Structures are given as C-alpha cells and as structure tokens.
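Problem 3 from the worked examples.
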Amino acid sequence: MSTIQYLQLSEVAKECPGRPSANAVWRWCRKGVKSRSGETVRLAHIRIGGRIFVTLESLHRFFAEVAKADEGYFVQRTANFPTPIRPTFGGDTAGRLAGANKLLDEYGF
C-alpha cells in the first residue's frame, strides 16, 4: 500500500501561502506559471477519473522551481547594472576639495 497522500485542488489551495483559489491551483497544473525569466513552470499532478490530485511534495517542488527560475532572472538583471562612476576632481585630496568647492560655488552654496 502506498503512503503518498493525494490532495484535491481545494485542499492544496488551503495548504498554500496566501490562500489562492482552487482555480488558481488548477491553472498552475494546466497552464503553469511564467517566471520572471520567461520559463513556464507547471505543477505536477495526476488525474483520477474526472478529478485532479496533487501531492504536497510536488507542490513544494513547484514552489522551489519557480523560485529558482526567478532567481536566474534577478541574478542576470543585477549583473547588468552599470557600476556607479565616482567623480574625481584631481589626483590628490586638495585637488578634490578645490573641485568640490568650485562646484558648490557654481550652484550657489
């Protein structure tokens, strides 16, 4: 006898953070969720008769796969940020200070 526990979509929805509707869980199974990177991740499910069932293990795997796909997007995006350019007003401290004072005078401070 198998110890795998199959849950109906309404039961799965109650186990999820944010309490999505059973219809949202059905969409995760059928259409999937498009991650930030553009990858579509689907919730693994089985159909028994006319009903769809999901295991808690597949639900946790689904959340982890979506998070991993999103992580790839955010890592790539932060890598593309330009490095900030620090203004320099000369090679020495006195030159920098003089340049900063000149800018302050130009702006009326």
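Problem 4, a separate protein:
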Amino acid sequence: MTTSPTADFASVVYGEPVADDDPAEHFHEASRLHPRIAPGRLPSLLLLGRSAELQQSAARSSRTHAHRSGIALQRGAVPGGSFRDALVRRRSSAPDEARSISLRTLGGLLEAGYAVQSGRRTVPSGGALYPLELYVVALAVEDCSESVFHYDPFAHRLEQLGDADRAAVSSALVDPSLGERAAAVLVLTAMFWRTRFKYGLRGYRFALLEAGHVVQNVVLAAACADVAALPVGGYYDRRVDALVGADGLDEASVYVVILGGGR
C-alpha cells in the first residue's frame, strides 16, 4: 500500500529562518503546565477552598439579567433521535435562504448546549468554573421579536438586551451573506478571569476547549432537529463584541454559530 505524503507548510507559517517573536508560540509556551508552575497556583486553590463566597460565585458562574423582560423557554425540548444518527447527519451547513426557526427548537439547542442539568452544565468545564456566556441574536425566530438576548442557563430563559439589526450582524461577519440568511446567530463569549483565577494562562485554553464542547452539542442537536447550523470563526471580533455588549477584555467573543430554518 502506498501513501501520499502530506504537505509541510511549517516554513510558510513560521518563515525561514523561524522568527523569535511568534505570538502564538509565546502564548503556547506561557500556558504550558509543568511541575515548577503548577504549585504556583496553590494560593488561588487554597483561597477558593476557604472562601464560601468564592465557592458560591463559582457554582453560579453566569451573568443574569432577571430584571429585564425576557422569554421563558420550555425545558425538555432537546430534539430526539439516536446519538449515532446525530453523528452521521451532522453537517456544517449555512441556511440557503432566510427562513424562520421556532422558539421551541431554539430553546432545545440552547438546552443541549449549556443548560444547567442537576446542578451541572451539559459540557465538561475545567474546575467546573463555566467561563462562557451565550447570547442569541434573534432575526427570524417565531413568536419572538428581532432582539439580542442573553441566555440564562439556570432559569433556561432568554433575557432581552436590545433590538437586533440584521445589517449590523452581516457587517460583523467576514461573509456578510450569512447574516442575510440567518434566522438566529448564537454568540459564545468567555469571561476569562473566571478560569484564569484558578489556572492562570492555561485557563484561556480551557475556555476555548469548553466553547468547542458547547458548539458540538448545539450542532448535534441541530442535526436532530433538521436545522441548518454553521460554526463560524470568520467574524470581526470587535463588531461581534459590540452586538452583545462584551467589552473585548474581561469578556470577549470566541465562537459564533449561524442558525437557519430547515436544511
């Protein structure tokens, strides 16, 4: 059996000779874990263990906007079907036209993605610190106004933050046509300090890993619901941050999912 060699693009990425100031390499090195670094996190761990206030805060790590008007979502709306079928049917697919999505279906995707179930979320999280926040930009959701919402994973509720602007959504994406066809846009942000408090720079890695877990849950549920779902990394960070009110420092967007009507 013969195999075809894979292309080596290292020289294209790093250049010849390799530069000494590659920022990605610097970050990866700074976030490594080794025996001389791990004990340095001990003061944070001891503080967390001794402080009931910090423990309570970590256990309920999520923004809440209970004072805002919102929409209570129906629990138990996660689409049915076997796990194997979901894996086979999962495709990253953009909606082919602007078609609406039902509020029940949207709630099911959020429930699958990050809802609190028996005190824990539906995804693994480093130290159970849950640094992510989920926002929905509803553009064509049945029984729902065109609005920007924050998702409360404890109450399973959408909290209205303001009006949605489809043109602003399109201008925040590298491919503007995705915004023109979206029924809803799911934005994941990370509150980096929640996990860096315990894990230092390695906590940044954990936040990104967790975002991947959430989006995988969402797209698998979307496959069961026959909803088009496209995970997107091609967006303009500051514009997406502005859509959901993130400051880009303590809280910043890390992932976007375009949701549409039936596939």
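Solution to problem 4. The chain has one domain: 13-66+73-262. The longest strand covers residues 251-262.
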